[in-house]
Amino acid sequence: MTWRIEWSPIAAVEAEAEAAKYALKRDGLGDRFLDEIDATIERIAEGPEHFQRWPDDPNYRRAIVHVFPFAVFYRVDEPRHTVLIVSVAPAKREPGYWR
């Protein structure tokens, strides 16, 4: 059974803003970025416990996006069987800024 996914407003804006930047670099690249984000979130929904806990705060987990240098940070709400996407962050950005 897959988990229900919810997006924080910040994470949704981050994903769209990064997609817009990639779209300016090359036609279709923004869509490809969003496709990879969606694929990452599908992997999370299938098994959120399979991804690494963030060492600075184990309430958060991190899934690396394939192809693009990004990570999806999220929290798991087990009683609600829900995953909250809290950030779509460049791999080089200091994590934790969303808290």
Could you explain the architecture of this structure?
It is a single chain. The chain has 99 residues and is α+β, with helices and mostly antiparallel strands. The protein has one domain (4-90): YaeB-like fold (2-Layer Sandwich), CATH 3.30.2310. Helix content is 35%, strand content 28%. The protein is built from 2 helices and 5 strands. The chain has helices spanning 9-25, 29-46; strands spanning 4-7, 52-53, 60-64, 70-77, 82-90. A 5-stranded mixed sheet has the order 1-5-4-3-2. The chain is globular and about 40 Å long. The mean pLDDT is 92.
Main attributes of the structure:
5-stranded mixed β-sheet; globular; YaeB-like fold; alpha+beta; 2 helices; 35% helix; 99 residues; single chain
Summarize it.
The protein has helices at residues 9-25, 29-46; strands spanning 4-7, 52-53, 60-64, 70-77, 82-90. The chain is of the alpha+beta class and 99 residues long. The chain has one domain (4-90): RelE-like (YaeB-like fold), CATH 3.30.2310.
Topology:
Layout: E1 4-7, H1 9-25, H2 29-46, E2 52-53, E3 60-64, E4 70-77, E5 82-90
Parallel strand pairs: 1-5
Antiparallel strand pairs: 2-3, 3-4, 4-5
Major beta sheet, specifics? 5 strands, mixed
How many β-strands, per DSSP? Answer: 5
Mean pLDDT: 92
SSE sequence, one letter per element: EHHEEEE
Which spans have pLDDT < 50 for at least 5 consecutive residues?
none
Number of domains: 1
**Strand percent estimate:** 25-35%
Radius of gyration: 13 Å
CATH architecture annotation: 2-Layer Sandwich
Helix content: 25-40%
